Amino acid sequence: MPQQVQGDIEALCRKFRRRQIEGSLNTARATAELLRSLITRKGHPDATSLLSDVRIWGTQLQAAKPLELAVGNIVRRVLHMIREECQNEEKEEVATAKVAALSEKEKITGLLSRAFRQPPPRSASLHNLLDLQHDAAATAVPDGPAEQAVAAPSQHAPDSQDVAQSGAQRRRGGHWEGKASIIDQLNELVGELRDIDSNIALHAVEHIHANESILTFGMSDTVLAFLLEAAKKRDFQVVVAEGAPRYGGQELARKLAQAGLHTTAIPDAAIFAMMARVNKVLVGAHALLANGGVMTGVGSHLVALAAKRHAVPFVVLVGLHKLSPLFPHDPSVSFNDFKSPSDVMDFSMVAEVLDAEESTAGVSGEQLYVHAPNPVFDYVPPELISLFVTDTGGYTPSYVYRLLAEYYSREDYTLSKELLDTIIR
Hints:
Rossmann fold; 2 domains; 52% helix
């Protein structure tokens, strides 16, 4: 079984390295499904062993694709599920011990009350004098038997420490009973990831109103689903910036026009000029960081600055599977993902430069090369963002810390055990 588990992990890592799985959503879904399969197949006697295995598996998967923070996010959510299940079990054990102790106390109190119960006093008179003497003789209890009757049940009552120890033994013997609950929660997580875009789109009518003009940038499946859902009940216009150099905005404009929306495609150079005519900016995101900033498509920072200058709300559509507890300055967060320079400069221009090298005398070779970087990601700070629309509702950047506390445990912010030990020292 360990070899089969390691083989499945290596297979997914190879897909990550070869870019056979692209996009935050597809990566998160593949990670969640693999963890569900591994947790189901491998036996774990207690929660500690399960936590250790998930941490090791998650560290390997994240190392295979460090630029995709969604991998670590899913692993941290699974670790948080396990920790919460442990806390729930501990609370149940403590509650059971308290009930057992309270029950024993009630038994002792009841026996004492029955053994030493006295009738209510009655005033003596010539009519009931003989009755009072008879009642006093009947209620007299000899010393010894009452004490024995009270002390006897306590010998068989379960102690609170015994109850806690029996709960721990249940976790150590065989398989951990809480694993079934973890698998159920993983099934819910996989279903949540499957419907993430449609869940975000459910909030479209709340944020897009009639006769508005919406500006978006580049291509985003989440933005597309959001706009199509709003178009079912609202009549509005969409201005799409092309998003050079990959020009994903042209594809988005075509799909919106085919769906019947009034669409205007503009070059990126016209964003600032068109910003005064729009009511709202909608963009997708690659990752939501701990400070409320986002990693998104290159060029989005320029769009956010233009929106801020014209006091236009800048709204980011992002699923909570992209919520990361890492900050922009964290060593684990890297923006150094580049595409082919052919998107920026055609290879024919490079050939012209190489041809010029033969006919150019007295010019060093370094001066003949043209650098054409083609970065993928941009960073938008939280002060430029007006609102996040997630699958659970809308939040401001200042609310991100509450979401982190809800979905992750602080002990799991750092997945690498070696790095965690370095930080602790």
